[in-house]
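JOB MANIFEST
job_type = single_chain_structure
chain_count = 1
residues = 513
[input]
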Amino acid sequence: MRMPPLHFYKAIFEDLDPEKLQKNFLGLLLGIQNVDRGSVWVKADEGYLCLEASGEESHQVRGVVLPFDSPSVVGWVIENGEMTVAEAHKDPRHHREIESTMTRKSSRILCFPLILTNGSVYGAVEVMDTAEQEEKLKLDREYLHLLQHIVDICAIALSNALSFTDKLNENIRLRQALKDLRSQDKIIGQSNNFLQVISMVKNYASTDFPVLITGESGTGKDLIATELHRQSARREKAFLVQNCSAIPDTLLESELFGYKKGAFTGADRNKVGLFEAAHQGTVFLDEIGDMPLNLQARILRVLQNQEVKPLGATTSRKVDVRLIAATNKDLKEAIGQGKFREDLFYRLNVLPLHVPPLRERTEDISLMLEHFLYREAHKMGLNPKLISSTALQKLLEYPWRGNVRELENFAKYILAAVTGNTIYVRDLPEHIKNPIFGLSHEKETPKAQSIEPVGLEDPSLFSFADFNWEELDRAYISFLLEKNKWNVTRSAHDAGIKRSTFDSRMKKLGIRR
């Protein structure tokens, strides 16, 4: 037997893609033996798995798993680690069922073990003669001995390629996990009410019904919408977002529905709208409470008929989109004021989802802050900072009116402002150290026990010089009202003044519930 040509070895050693390598390996081996049917097998958890097959009816073999307890030539070779030749119509080791539906049957099978350098067998390669008259396989001892050496070289190359691919896939998985960890779009939470939201997201994602996400500004409604799409059957399709308050009304209409060339001055080409572009995917309309009434009617048509009509077009077009909307407004109040269509509200509110504010999920603050500090520190090339227990307590007591967005901005600020490795109370902004002075009389105030100024206990952390009389007066009155659950009579009594005087001060300072 002459040595194989150079391109044989190039096919084995130049490509680390297992699929290409095993295909080339099998093809060249079949060429040497002048037959056209063969297969490569490995020992898997559930049995012997066919990785690659060649021949006219190879699709019937590729991917097949032979059970361990079922007789087969490849099974015998893998378990015994020896090359063998089998007469297909006589040998009891031949798994005849695999060829039962094939037009051409094997007459003789030559099978080699795939052996690692440590001597362990991980698979087998077999070539088959399907000729009915003359025998094509070359089976003399010297020829088979040399062929076994070639197979051994190929076996090691294939093993290395499979191992390399496993490591590569593992590396890709680790990179993706690290990317997710550093992602700005990571949803974090462990509080009961937030876990309930995540549970509802999972349930809602399995449907195509509209979802209306409500919650205060900065609570992460956009992340929830993204997660709804990611967990849905539409995850491979487009997820397109439009903030309804970010652009003028006329431009918003063309963005959502598109337009035909010549529809208006400056329309020099056709434009595909958001709904058409998101066909079979998801459209997320953020701040839908700010959408003008005329556009609300068009959105209603999309929900009712699943069709859109571009500006300047004479006919409508069918679209298949899942609509998710979000707002920080009270839409029922807006309906009463004539600013939002009641029929659209009920179309959108099929699956309601309320995202709780951060002050109602304080168990999540430390977890989220740790994530933000790590993520931003990584971006800046810094080491993540630690938070002292007393500083963390102040952060847990703070009401976080801006919710997750405010917490995220705080993390960025503290990384830039604090030079040490640990964050102490003295490093916190004044409005967090002394939350009583950051109260807004136009919003609900936190509970009394969480707004007592720490400066009364620790003068080093509090300075009256930083506040004028009106600010102190407003803070004190707000504190008394919260303490007495907004009972003006009791608050006036605690202040040691008449109720009428107390009420007069409230009106002058603009304090109202």
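[summary]
The chain is about 40% helix and 15% strand.
The first strand starts at residue 37 and ends at 43.
exit_status = 0
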